[in-house]
Structures are given as structure tokens and as C-alpha cells.
Amino acid sequence: MTLELQTLKAKALAIHERLCAAYGCPIPYFHSLDPLSELISSLLSHRTRNADSGRAFKALRARYPDWDMLMAASAQEVEETIQGVTWPEQKAPRLQGVLRAIHERHGSLSLEFLKDMPVEEARAWLECIPGVGPKTSAAVLSFSTLRKAALPVDSHHHRVAVRTGLIARSVAVGPSHALLFALLPPEWDAQAVYDNHEVMMLHGQRCCFFSNPACERCAILDLCPTGQARVG
């Protein structure tokens, strides 16, 4: 391990511990959905407020008591059901395409078999499905009842990581997943990895804003070169 990587790992751990003290770890899981339902929920949430995607998910569940019914429905009907999310005209056929891909590859509409796979293998299986990227695959494994040690990175998490220097500004959200996960202690369990995502996300939402970050009250200001330059 290079000295630079050792330094980054130590910094990532220090940031995690500081933010956990600020936001209260362990953080309760916000979902207890089966992995297929979590996948659908995650796809609905793309570029959509949580309240709106939550309503759309409930509307889907009410209209289609099992996901086979959703797969067999007309795209127009599905689009009408999920009105309120961004781009429902794109998400309706995408949802159905994802379900068909799972059925074709696995023989049934279930992702429970992923529990027996190592995290990276399970993520690779999911990301072979068109429309499923690293954030979605990690969300399915972490947030669902599978409770695996996978690290999702959203825009808030990514912003905090960039500003604190854990990753370069040139690293996009997608590639950042592997880099940020590699900075976490390998022995961490699913709860600790989930906590890391949650506290980084919460810090981005509540302090490290996209515009006018509140650096003066930041719990990790001394670990953030961007904030120090701004305050100084």
C-alpha cells in the first residue's frame, strides 16, 4: 500500500468517525424492501424527490400486487401510474425492460439469490442489466433486506468526498463508487458501510451545500481543504 493511499484511508476513517458523532451512528435503515422491490424503488428515485418517488412506488404496488403484473402491463398504463416522478415516459418502459431482463436471466422475478453471492459478483450481475448502474446496484444490495456491505454514492456523498480531497474533482459519480469503497476498512460490516454513505449524504444535505456551503459550522472543516480555503 502506498503512503498516499494509507493517508487517504486514515482521512476517510477520520471523516467517518467525526460525521458519525455529528449525525448519530448507527443509523437505522430507512427501507425493509425485498431486493427486487428496492430495485424498482431505486429506479423510480433517479433525479426525483424522495416524496414523489415514494408515492409512485406505492401507486405501483397498489395497482400491481406482484411485479409480474407490472411486467405484463402496457407501458402507457405504467407511465400513468408513476406520474409525479421525473421522466415517467422513460422510466415506465425501463422498469418493464429491467423486469424482463431479470426474468430472462434468472427464470423468475426474484433477486433473493443475490444473498449467496459476494458483493462484487452480485453488483456485476445487476449491472449487466441495461439501465442499472453502480449507484443502483449498491442501493439494492445495501438498502434492501439483503443488507450487504455495498456503498452507494449519490451527488451529496460525492460532493463531500471531492471537497475533502478523498477523490479528485475529475472523478465522476459512477467511477467514485469503487474508489471510495476501497478507502473503507475491509472488515466493516453492512451497517458500518451503510452508515458511511448516510453520514456523507446527510452532511452534503445539511451543511456541505452545492451553493454556499456552511463551512463555518462544518464538523470536518479541519479535514477539508476546500472549506479551509473558503473560510480563510
TrEMBL record:
Statement: the UniProt record of this protein carries the keyword Oxidoreductase: no
Cofactor(s) listed in the protein's UniProt record: [4Fe-4S] cluster
One Pfam family recorded for the sequence: HhH-GPD
GO molecular function: hydrolase activity, acting on glycosyl bonds; iron-sulfur cluster binding; metal ion binding
Biological process terms in GO annotation: base-excision repair
Keyword terms of this UniProt record: DNA damage, DNA repair, Glycosidase, Hydrolase, Iron, Iron-sulfur, Metal-binding
CDD domains the record matches: ENDO3c
Protein name (record): Fe-S cluster assembly protein HesB
Species: Microvirga makkahensis
HhH-GPD domain span: 44-206
Top-level taxon in the UniProt lineage: Bacteria
Family: Belongs to the Nth/MutY family.
The keyword DNA repair is annotated on this UniProt entry: yes
